[in-house]
Amino acid sequence: MRRTRTSIAVLAAASLALTACGREDSAAGGEAQSEEIASGEATGTIDVWAMGTEGEVLEDFSAAFEEANPEADVKVTAVPWESAYDKLSGAIASGETPDVSLVGTTWMGEFAQAGGLMPTPENLVDESAFFPGAWESTEVGGTSYGVPWYVETRVLYYRTDLAEQAGWDEAPQTWDELKTFAQDLESKAGVEYGLNLQPGQTGSWQTVMPFAWSNGATLTNEDATEYTIDSPEMAEALDYYTSYFDEELSPTRLLDPGELETGFAKGTYGAFISGPWHTGLVEDAGVTQEQYTVAPMPGPDGAPGSSFVGGGDLVVFNDSDNADNAWKYVQWLSEAETQQAFYDEVGDLPAVQEAWETGELAEDPQLQVFGQQLENAESPPAVPTWEQVAGSIDSIVEQASKGDLPGDEAASQMQSEASSIGTGL
């Protein structure tokens, strides 16, 4: 399996500590989509900001676009992820944006609400070509403000050799089976913890919410004007999640960097939930490909479980000096052939489903698990206040994981704090 670059992991972490800012004189939501882009070749200079590995390779990769559009010149500025949010929000506030930028999926609501993003042209792409959860990350108040570029999702990792010792020759398919699986890994295979889950703190919502979504819980109403966190489905999912800590199936502390991977190799942890970047990390820690596998998230009753979908979206700014041609560049990056070529270049998982139908993406069994999971994955609501609400959820999950809050009280407290913050739409 080709190892996805750490830029995906950095994006997942960097997007968690951000707070809303931007211009207040315009708001997203309910806008008509942009006018259709003109036919013909792209022309002029297209200024692009991209982060991480994408920023390092994108200009050279774009030579194929320039060859097909001889009058176009793609100029890429590489921006470090740690400064990307401030740089983008400052550019929007000052009206000095590039034409195109990579934007973390959890930033979309803030930047659209700030008035910085141009709605996606109606004839740019076919929405159904993308994984549904990825496309939802571009929609703010019913309007799309970009196009998904690459994606990541979370699945179940487990040691197959230890699972066999515990009497399991296939992955658990339900919540009850997952609990028994973790118990058997401890009692029969000798692991210290059957399933490592995050006990609150920054980013824990990304592990908790797949259980809630699988159980039918929602975060907002359909038009994202109100939070809908307090529900029996959410409370039940929280009780199930925190039971792993109550029953000592998962450690109640956040692990140190590298501790999960070395513990997975030593057999301290029998299973965990994470994204595609972890395949390389566990193998670097000494786990052979014959000793572990990945599996889709189980649902509560045997139906496929949901997961979190993140990644990066491509946007064009309202202040772009070359918007029509910028959209043509985004359109090219959204073609299945281009997405597959970019996967070959850096390992980013394509957001376009057709790109998974040939080559390594279609043939590698582990990659196919991630592709299968992406068909049942959701993104958080693209609302301006999501980062604030996510931080609140993280804190409450930590309390619940310590046994200080039952699920119904935790869900009620999440709802109270989220309603106080509002969605911003």
UniProtKB/TrEMBL annotation:
Region annotation (Disordered) ranges: 402-425
Ranges of biased composition (kind: Low complexity): 409-425
Sorted UniProt keywords: Signal, Transport
BP GO terms, sorted: maltodextrin transmembrane transport; maltose transport
Keyword tRNA-binding: no
GO cellular component: ATP-binding cassette (ABC) transporter complex, substrate-binding subunit-containing
Record has Methyltransferase as a keyword: no
PANTHER family, per database record: MALTOSE-BINDING PERIPLASMIC PROTEIN, MALTOSE_MALTODEXTRIN-BINDING PERIPLASMIC PROTEIN
Name of the featured protein: Extracellular solute-binding protein
Species assigned in the record: Nocardioides euryhalodurans
